[in-house]
Amino acid sequence: MAAINGISSATETYQTSQQSTSKSTTATAAATQTSSADTDDTVKLSAKAQAKLLHTQGQSVQSIASSLGVTVKDVDGYLGISTQQALQQALAAAQQSTSAKA
């Protein structure tokens, strides 16, 4: 009888450990699904989109170029600014600056 009780006890211990392992595996799988779901919502913007976003936030073309690791000419292209437009904008800014001082 003692041997049967020993086998019964060992069987119960094994079943309990299997249930714990199963619960642990399920919890790990759920955590993995949650963390992968968090990364699914991220979007990588192109350099052009980043340049436009930074420009709307008020950053200068030179600052944007430095942040993105591209040339000022590239940023001008992303923003649709031709050399002529950039020159006119710089002149207008300089005129506003001098008229504000006067």
Describe the structure.
- The protein has 102 residues and is an all-alpha fold.
- It is 82% helix and 0% strand.
- The chain has five helices and no strands.
- Helix 2 packs antiparallel against helix 3 and helix 3 packs across helix 4.
- The longest helix is centred in the first third of the chain and has 39 residues.
- 7% of the residues are buried.
What's this, in brief?
With 102 residues, this protein is mainly α. It is built from five helices and no strands.
The gyration radius over C-alpha positions equals: 32 Å
Specify the biggest β-sheet.
none
How many strands?
Answer: 0
Helix content: over 70%
Order of helices and strands: HHHHH
Low-confidence stretches: none
**Please, how many helices?**
5
Shape: elongated
Average pLDDT works out at 76
Termini separation comes to 109 Å
Strand content: under 5%
- Structural class comes to mainly alpha
Task: For this entry, give a set of tags.
102 residues, 82% helix, mainly alpha
Blueprint (SSEs and pairs):
Layout (H helix, E strand, L loop, with lengths): L1 H39 L6 H10 L4 H8 L3 H8 L3 H19 L1
